[in-house]
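Weekly modeling sync, notes
Attendees: S.R. (lead), two postdocs, one rotation student

Agenda item 3: backlog of single-chain predictions. S.R. asked that every request posted to the team notebook include the full sequence so nobody has to chase files. The rotation student volunteered to paste the first one in as an example of the format we agreed on. Action items at the bottom.

Example entry:
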Amino acid sequence: MEAILEIGIALPPQTQVMIFKKSDNKWWRVGTFSLWYMWEEDKAEHMLELRNIIDLDHKDVIIRLTAGGTDIQKETELSIYRLYKGRLYRTFETTEEFALRRFPSPGLMMIEDVRSQISYPEVDRREGAYIVERIFKQSVPQFKVGPH
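Predicted structure, as returned to the notebook:
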């Protein structure tokens, strides 16, 4: 038996997801995830997703976490976890969105944008389960920064 608890905290805004497993009539926390950096309601709403990727008997846990930094405008990591024998294992990880601000020459700025589209085709028992990742890259046109 498993349980997932999702908590929304107002100040500072953040969302926490805790995953529990019951064994020997006791609940054990097997995973904790926090979304707080660049928190937005839409991101919080899509932080946790449950899917039957491998088979119809087990739910896989999809977690999206946002990060960033000075010139990394946005980075969304997507990880897929599976509960097996009382432990939570990461079975897949990718960067779903990544935007980097670059300054290729004085006065010019460019945004490099990379996005992944993840799909989970219906399970075919003969071929096994699989995940399809399509990656799209674009560079936002350069423009002048600073005084004109």
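Discussion: group reviewed the output briefly. The chain has one helix and nine strands.
Action items: rotation student to repeat for the remaining queue; S.R. to check formatting next week.
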